[in-house]
Amino acid sequence: GNGAYCESSPHKLIAGSLTGENLNYNWTSPSGETHAGAEWDLGLLRNSDAGEYTVSASDASTCEVSQSVYLQVYPNPRVSLNIQDTLCTDKEVLLNAGAGFASYTWQDGSAEPQYLATSEGLYWVTVTDNNGCQTTAPVTVNVLPELVVTAAADDLIIGTCPTSRSNLSATVTG
Description:
Layout: E1 3-6, E2 10-14, E3 24-28, E4 34-36, E5 39-44, E6 51-58, E7 64-74, E8 86-87, E9 93-96, E10 103-106, E11 114-117, E12 121-128, E13 134-143, E14 148-153, E15 168-173
Parallel strand pairs: 1-7, 8-13
Antiparallel strand pairs: 2-5, 3-4, 3-6, 6-7, 9-11, 10-12, 12-13, 14-15
């Protein structure tokens, strides 16, 4: 029947006779597409599927009756965890799903708009809007290895005379 549904949810239109009579059914979509049969599987709904669907039922003596149903399709909320996905050792990053959603659910069950990631791994949030539609956004946080700097000189005392020469070297790993 009439109803509001979220984008990407499966939906099937079903017509039937209250008396059990064997009828022929023909559907027409808002875009003019037609389908014959008591059931019409629309698959995963798109925003373009919204509108009035009409089914006509006829019997063997060509008596015909029509009924319309209206489908409203809400877009799923849009969420993105825009962060730099790499952390330095012993650092943390604040993941922010943004404001304006009815609810938030992070991978650990917490329910705030923001989440503090303190270690490497896969994080995700599922947001629900005021229509009950949901979207999940994942992000992988990587930790860079700790940087180690090693410095060396070719002699123990670096000369202070203008003609003294010493070779210094530094190596960074990590």
